[in-house]
Amino acid sequence: MSTRMFGAPVARTEDERLLRGRGAFLDDLGPGALAAAFVRSPHAHARVVGIDAEDALDVDGLVAVYTHDDLSGPMAEPLPMLIPHPGIIDGRTPYALAKEYVHHVGAAVAMVVATDRYTAEDVAERIRVDYEVLDPVVGIEAAARADVVLHPGMADNVAAHHVQEVGDAPAAIDAAPNVLDLELDIERSACTPIEGRGVRARWDPADARLRVYSSTQTATGVRAAVAAKLGLGLGQVEVVVPDVGGGFGVKIVHPWPEELMVPWAARLLGREITWTEDRREHFVSAAHERAQRQRIRVGFDDSGRLLGLDVAILHDNGAYLPYGVIVPIVTSTQLLGPYKPGAYRVVFTSLYTSTVIVTPYRGAGRPQGVFAMERTMDAIADHLGLDRADVRAANFIRPDEMPYDQGLLFQDGRPLIYDSGDYPAALAAIKKLVDWDGFAAYRERALAEGRRVGIGLACYVEGTGPGPYEGGHVQVETDGTVRVATGLTSQGQGHETVLAQIVADELGIAMSDIVVTTGDTRRMGYSVGTFASRGAVTSGSAVALAARSVREKALRIAGEALEADPADLEIVHGRVRVKGAPATGMDIGTVAVLSNPLRYAFDDASRAATQFAGPADYDRAPVDPDDSPGLESAEYHSPLRCTFAAGMHAAVVETDPETAEIRILRYCVVHDCGRLVNPMIVEGQVHGGVAQGVAGALYERMAYDGSGQLLNASFMDFLIPYSSEVPAVAIDHLETPSPLNPLGVKGAGEAGVIPGSAVLAAAVEDAEGFPITAMPISPSDLFDLRRRFAAGEIAPLRRRAPRVPAQQQPGQERR
Amino acid sequence: MGERMHDIRLSVNGVPHAATVPARRLLSDCLRHDLGLTGTHVGCEHGVCGACTVLVDGRPARSCLMLAVGAEGHELTTVEGLADPGGPLHPVQQAFRECHGLQCGFCTPGFLTLIAAYLEEHPDPTEAEAREAVAGNLCRCTGYTNIVAAVLRAAELRRAGPAAVPEPAVPAEERP
Ligand code: FES
Ligand code: FES
Questions:
Q1: Residue B70 C-alpha to ligand 2 middle, in angstroms?
Q2: pLDDT tens string A608-642
Q3: Chain B contact for A60 (CB, 8 A cutoff)
Q4: Rounded to the nearest whole angstrom, what is the distance from the C-alpha of residue A361 to the centroid of ligand 1?
Q5: If we measure between CA atoms, which residue out of A245, A236, A253, A243 comes closest to residue A202?
Q6: Shortest-distance Cα residue to atom 4 of ligand 2
Q7: Does Nucleus count among this protein's keywords (chain A) (predicted)?
Q8: Domains of chain B, CATH where assigned
Q9: A684 lines ligand 2 (CB under 6 A)
Q10: Residues A403 and A491 reside in one and the same domain
Q11: How many domains does chain A have?
């Protein structure tokens, strides 16, 4: 047999074109298109009183200016509520262009089309919009207080309210021997791919068809949304996703206002139009995530075992709710991690604020949930004077309890049942990797050198690979090339490589003969999209099933031609041959020829396939009734429910006694995403995730001022870490296969980011000797906390008196 | 209301190009949209991300911070010029492929040009130096681990086979 590709660190197929500068990203698609620019609201909350384009009309190159008044029918109505949920009380979505009100800085008010982007921006600058400025709603507290109500017709700012319960948590807590209360805070961050959003559209009047290119995470979603809004049949719209420069969640939202306006105008004008988001636009008009305030009440026994857990979450969803309540649902459910919570109640309240919308960012609510649970675990350990790892171990679901039903409904609307996992093994692995047991001695040595160090641990479970389904199409061409298509899109995850690896093994074909297409509705019309770490699970399984059925057909056809039993055949290096007699066989391309009886001969391959080529069986139709021509197959994988990956991170930090700088000395990851298709790619995903986790924990926050202006809407002020800020990562893999898909895989895309804030809060707290309850934490935040701690405003951790170098007591920094 | 246009001649990857641009045309836009060299990407257009990095007379520069009219008379190298179209990859490109130094590939051209120039002057960096060398460019996908590894691997490839390193577009006498 040939070498197995599944499980090998195969170099990526995508790389060659990207390395040579021959990738084709949205803004690379060539000349010939008009450019769009948008006039955006400078106010967080205002009434649009008038729009005057008079001054712009004499700009050379202006083609058109549109406002909401120009829209009609479905285009004039609010954008869809993509994911309805019974917990949504009043789900507001924006208009493609503002109608009467704007609800955040950056909301699109008018669209300009011009010969090029420079001109379009010249025009946009000259359009005068008259606003009646209204009071903003900034921050969770203001939203909850509802002194200002953002949306007309609402009595408060509550978009959604949802309760999930297993058992009677308040009663269990009241009866518990130990009870703790925690109040936690997480601030906003954002996906911030280096390529922003972008859309390009072309209307073909002769065919009455629309071609849309979008830098999106869902081709089929955009297609359906555009068709619905423009009143076109699905068959009239094709969406092609070019190379995408990162997504991380923000590009799953659809349709964006721009994603509708560009195709709408392209059709109206009969001209190709393109729009590429600039960096400031991405900050103020795309999406953010993370901001939550959490109140936790927990009851536990003397060994730290949870008896009852009661969690109330205030979630800032921004100005609108187009993506529903996926993020707080994920927080509510994934908060449980690898633990049995005893009785559990979780209540979330999702609030409107006059800020950019909040939709999933890699991790999608999990980092907040894990922060809540892991802060709780650390607090319990501290309260009881127990080792933090032991308290976690006491609460683990054991491998022999799998599958384990948490008794809740997950974000896909299906039961939260963990399929497999070995948490004790993962804990043992992470303790070893970070040298958990050796840390006390290390701390002593560090203290002797005047250095302040701490260690933290955080565990998570991640539901990955949700349905409803993904498809795979595998087709063998007569020259032996194998074309593979799946509908979901790629933003750097290496799907072209991973899917080719799977097909290579299933079909016995060289990787170099396989061509993979993703995110093109012309090739695969049924698909969901790329989110929730589902690519390898759903599309990987689908292409495996399609390849298996192609293989079966190839063996059947070759068996007939070779007069051999298909069971005695194998496919090796693209040749179907008799096992044990490798000289007897035929190329798989020849099988493709045989699979498609033709009337016309137009090349060598088709000459061999005409119905006049060879002896015929006159009692049989050229194609059997239960067969179809061609060596191809489309199959779908529709998982029963999510498969649950898991992992644990540990970090060692050093905090500077003077400057309060936080340095990560060691970052360790133990990760279990089932069987690994390509360990090199999985590690890359972990590296990237950890970088975003560290970023969210120590550097990134969206700084809104009281009037709703985003103060740091540039890469100069929003601190994405450079290589100098991201630690080296030590990784260990466990492989607990999933029973829920044919490959045994689980998703890997988001894992790295999830426990970032939890593990670094734990490590900083351990170094400092007082609780950390809000993230991210900057040196100045820590500096302030030290001062408050020294002033007695913050109680010390119980587990040990603050162990800091003698001459540098916390809070005694000289100013 | 017309805008005054300028006829400029740019030398990119050793090939002369002519373009007619307004004075405010960014070099990044001119390369991408006037000359069709879309390998150079823009991620911020305010000089922070480094995705638009090209070599100007062999030295890394952010093409979003330069005007096209100001690039006349200089020798420019973009990612497309690192290796011959049909030929083997440049050692830095090869190293990125081997080390999985790219995911979405959007930031990659900026890193490749930066590192290619860096290794000209620092053929044998330590890991810490390699990390420092790339610390001015943003990547949102990789966490930089494999980019740092790729710098070291590229240095190794260069040392192993200088013959395999294609000549940069800068004439020898103009190199720093
Ligand atoms: S685009 Fe030039 S530095 Fe970001
Ligand atoms: S590879 Fe995607 S931004 Fe660097």
A1: 29
A2: 777 766 677 888 888 888 899 999 999 998 988 88
A3: yes
A4: 23
A5: A236
A6: B139
A7: no
A8: 5-81 (3.10.20.30), 91-162 (1.10.150.120)
A9: no
A10: no
A11: 3
